[in-house]
Design goal:
heterodimer, A: about 110 residues, alpha+beta, four-stranded mixed sheet, B: about 300 residues, five-stranded mixed β-barrel, globular
Amino acid sequence: MTAVAKADDRQQSGPSVGPLSIWTVPSPERLLWHDLGAVAVVFNARSGDTHVVDPLAHEALALLVESPRTASALTAALADLLEAPEAEVGPKVEAILTEFDRLGLIFPLVTVH
Amino acid sequence: MGRDVRDITRSPEHFRALRREGLRFRVGPFVAHVRTPFTRLRHDFLETYEGFPLASEAEATTFHLQVRATAPLRRWLRPKLMADAGFAHTPFVPLPGDLGMLAMEMGLNWLVATSSDRFLMFHAGLVERGGKAILMPGASGIGKSTLTAGLSLSGWRFFTDEFGLLDPDTLAFHPHPRPISLKNESIPVLAERVMPERLGRPLHETPKGTIRYLKPPRDALERMADTAPASLILYPNYNPNAKSQVIELPKHEAFAMVRGAAVNCDRLGETAFRALAALTDRCRSFRLIYRSLDQAIRMVSDLMEHAP
């Protein structure tokens, strides 16, 4: 089981994360969620892995399930939701996307570096 | 279970059957078929498994296991034996002829762990009282067998000291009351609480030190078909030098811990995830640090008073 909960501790860039990448969740119906109060757990039936996600990562994944987005579009949506400045949310979103990508939870539809 | 079912006895008939066609007996939801030519093992087995119900003709066998000599001469000359479940490449290690019961138990454990995927299996002890079960996961040597045995001698029904078998559809645990494996320091602790005939002879110099098998209580065998849902999940930790404590785990930690104890979680995938989520919702989970068996039994009883 892996944790997607400490975005600040993770590397803030990865090989697939580019500013123009449009991120999507393949087969979102194969993600099973369970709310555990402070965090949620998500089971990815495509990989067989279970991940612990904090509320921010949970919202980010839910937004990507809703529709594919670039990092900046996701940052804007989350900043709006949290009523926080985009400058504060942006680095966390980059870290979350890198981790989601590493775990195979999201795929880039278009990658332009 | 009615007493019209024939049980394993220490009779010459069953002693002979173990060498020839083998014995088929029921242990919880499984039917095991065991066979061995070793005289001492046949004595040990009948002593330890006396009272287990024999399976009827109509019941299909779940596991076949024989304990055989590693080579023909090794049956008589410096005997060496090993469990054999019929695989081309056996996963079992050879053991000295004196440790036949250990080979048998290790073989049965391996068969349960690798071929029972209709259950979500936990490496855990399990007891029940008043229709509520307590799951006690833990690594070997942490004290779960001792605590399970102690509770089973204090008014709790014994389910297992090794495999918690959860039906993922009903969320009920199935008993699997095999002999309780007591090791090293736990042997005298339990020996003073039971009649001597309930303990098998000591097996010395095993890979885990000295082992004695404790026969399951009679009511555990008579009610091995009676399932129960869990109300508590406890992580016992015997430490005579630590302060005794009961620490409740937050739900996310409880989920991670119980998932870690699920032996076949990856094989069951989505089914396992749903069952683990439901189990975590239903049960409160605690770490239990205790200094003596009697203290642990009191702590468990107190926790059960307030269990859902």
